[in-house]
Each structure stands twice: as C-alpha cells, then as structure tokens.
Write a structure and sequence with these properties.
single chain; about 400 residues; mainly alpha
Length: about 400
C-alpha cells in the first residue's frame, strides 16, 4: 500500500494547515466556554432544574463522542473535506436553533445536534494531523494548533460573560453561529483534501469491525487514549461545575467568572508552548511524565487549600493553573500518540479516542448533577481524582507502551 502523506500538500502551506487545525479544534471550547457563563442565567430563565442544565453539557458531549464512531469511518471512506463541510453546516443550523430555543427540552435537543456535528469537526482535525505528519512531528503540530485553541478559549470565557451580562444568554449562544459560519467559509475556500488514499471498503461491516478490533487491540492506543480521557476528565469536571461554584457559591459576577476562565486558558496556552520545548529536549515519553507530575501536584494542592478552609476563588485557582499547564502538554501528546500507529485508519482511531473521552465526560456530568451541593467539594474532589489518575497513567502505561507508537 502506498505510504501516507507526511507533509502538507503543496496546495496547503504549513502555516495555513496550523490555522485551520486551530479553528477546527477550537470549536469544542467555543461550544462550552462561551456557554458556561450563561448557564446559571439560562437555567433560571427557562425555569429548569439544575440536573437539566447539566444535561445541556453532558448530552452534548455524549453525542459528540458517539457521533465520532460514525464520522470516523465516513471520513476514511470519502475523505476529510466533505465530512468537515457537512459537520460545520449542521453545527451552524443547530447553533441557531439553540440560541432561539423556547424551553430547556428543545435546547437540549439542539445541543445534542451541535455535539453530533462537532464530532465530525474535531475528529477530522485529529485525523488530518495524522494525514500530514508522523507521530512526533504530529505532536508538535498539534501543540501549535492547540496554542491557537488556547487563544480562542481565553477570549471565549470573558466574551461569554460580557455578552450574557449585557445582552442576555441567547446572544452568547448566537456567537457560536458566527464562529461556525466563519470556519465553514474558510474550510470551503482554503482546505484541500488531506487524505492521500481513501479506503473504499471502510464502511463495509466486516472491514469496519476489523479496523475497530485492530485499533482496540493496540496497547499504545489505550495508553494515550486513557491519558487524553483522564486529562479531559479533570478539565470537564471544572467546566461543568465551575460556573455554579464560582458564581453561586463564591459570589463572582458572570463577567468576573469569565476572567477566571480566561486565566485558566492562559495557563493552558503556556502549557502548549512548554510542550514544544519539552518535546525538543526530552522526547515524548519523558515530556508526558513531567506533565503527570504537574497534574498531580496541582490537584493535590487544590485539595489541600480546600481542606484548610481557604475557599476563595483565586486561592483555589492557583493550583488549578498547574493542572491546566499540564493539560496543555497531555492533550497534543495524547491525541497524536493515540492515532500515531494507524496511518491508514486515523479516522477510526480518532473516533474511538474521542468516544472514550466523551463517555467519561457524560458520566462526570451525571455525577456532578447529583452532587453539586452549594460547596466547592464536587469541583475539588473531581479535579483531585483525575490528577492522580493522570499521573498514574503517565508514569506507567504511557512509559510501557508509548515507545511502540512508531513500530505498530
């Protein structure tokens, strides 16, 4: 079989590839971070219970994860570009629907549609990295793209707070439509097909099951997928609970909360830069090990200050910045590592990786919905748990199986 492409095609400059990847990957924090400052207000405005509000996040992420199992094989069969165009088109329509939803039930339906469409966008972005780069170069490219994601995320949280405070939560949701439409236009104009060799048998049940089995039997895939699942588990715990903790428990305004979210994005942004420096100096496995130490130190310090009764926003956030710094390292390393062994099945590998991550997020959403009790503890305990899991995975599974990524 011909070798996969290892560099961007001539029609697409490297800088443009990174820009497009950054915008595609950023659709996930745009979908959550712009929305979070408005979540308490829309919950009250629609007269909905807290559990229903949590469902607007957890159901979106479950749809996001499950849909990738469909989008992945479709992209291996038909290419990345048509799947991206379809996903961004559906997302744009669903964003309009969610902004004008008259009640919580319909809002949840539109958010599920958003999540399913977002699955096509993010899955294709991860697969494109494998189309264009070998694993170590892919980690560097992913880190650059995620630096762009960090910039977008830094803007989203305060923007969502300002829009919600000044113009109402519906305008905050409408901003998602603008982002999706602009990204759709750029992809339509500037992104060529990156999949060098489509697989005409990718959708045949026997072939599809065989591809899934090939991916799921690979220990390198499991090591890096568990890494990305654990780091996103800690982040999602923060995303799903922080608006209620910081606004309703600790008394911040929505605009101040947007500032808190932006500050955590700055830490993540710095982590993506640190990732590239560590990769160049230490390589992939030692970089992940260092990030594991940062994760567990951050989570443990956060739990310590909470146990000491220091329940102030910035005191809790300072150790969380260490977790977010490490998140900026774990994400590019984990995502590129999970798809690295599968140049001819990057779509399926990306889809299964995304499915695992979002299945965990859905479970976390259900857990938080039952445990948000007017204290900081659901947030603190969740981050602490995932930080410990991250360190364990980074120091054991990734070190044992990660070295096989180039030889699978």
């Amino acid at each position: 079989m011909p070798a996969p492409a290892t560099a961007p095609p001539p029609a697409m400059a490297s800088s443009l590839a990174i820009l497009v990847l950054a915008l595609l990957l950023s659709i996930q924090p745009v979908t959550t971070d712009l929305y979070l400052p408005a979540l308490p207000a829309l919950t009250r405005d629609l007269g909905a219970p807290l559990a229903a509000a949590q469902l607007t996040l957890s159901a979106l992420l479950l749809a996001f994860g499950c849909s990738q199992l469909v989008w992945g094989p479709l992209s291996d069969r038909f290419g990345r570009r048509p799947i991206l165009l379809a996903g961004l088109g559906i997302y744009t329509v669903a964003s309009l629907g969610s902004a004008f939803a008259p009640g919580m039930s319909l809002l949840i339906v539109w958010r599920i549609a958003q999540g399913a469409a977002m699955g096509a966008v993010v899955m294709c972005a991860r697969a494109i990295v494998r189309d264009l780069y070998e694993p170590l170069a892919g980690a560097r490219a992913m880190s650059k793209a995620l630096t762009g994601l960090g910039i977008v995320a830094c803007i989203c949280a305060p923007l969502g707070g300002l829009l919600s405070d000044w113009l109402g939560w519906r305008v905050a949701l409408l901003a998602l439509t603008v982002y999706a439409a602009a990204t759709l236009a750029l992809v339509a104009v500037a992104l060529p097909e990156t999949l060098a060799h489509r697989n005409p048998q990718a959708l045949q049940p026997r072939v599809l099951l065989g591809t899934w089995a090939l991916v799921l039997r690979n220990p390198t895939f499991w090591a890096f997928s568990l890494l990305t699942t654990a780091t996103y588990g800690g982040l999602f715990t923060f995303l799903a609970s922080s608006s209620f903790v910081f606004i309703d428990v600790l008394g911040l305004t929505r605009t101040q909360y947007g500032g808190v979210m932006a500050s955590s994005c700055v830490a993540y942004f710095a982590g993506t830069f640190l990732c590239r420096s560590l990769l160049a100096r230490f390589g992939l496995l030692r970089t992940v090990a260092v990030a594991g130490a940062l994760s567990v130190i951050g989570g443990t310090l956060m739990a310590t200050v909470a146990l000491l009764g220091w329940h102030q926003p910035w005191v809790l956030m300072l150790p969380f910045y260490l977790f977010m710094l490490a998140h900026g390292i774990h994400q590019p390393c984990g995502q590129s590592g999970a798809v690295g062994p599968f140049p001819q099945a990057a779509g399926v590998a990306s889809a299964l990786n995304g499915f695992m991550t979002m299945l965990a997020a859905f479970a976390i959403g259900g857990w938080l919905g039952a445990r948000l009790d007017g204290t900081v503890w659901p947030l603190v305990n969740g981050v602490w748990f995932w930080s410990a899991a991250l360190a364990l995975i980074a120091w054991t599974l990734v070190q044992k199986f990660g070295a096989a990524r180039d030889h699978a």
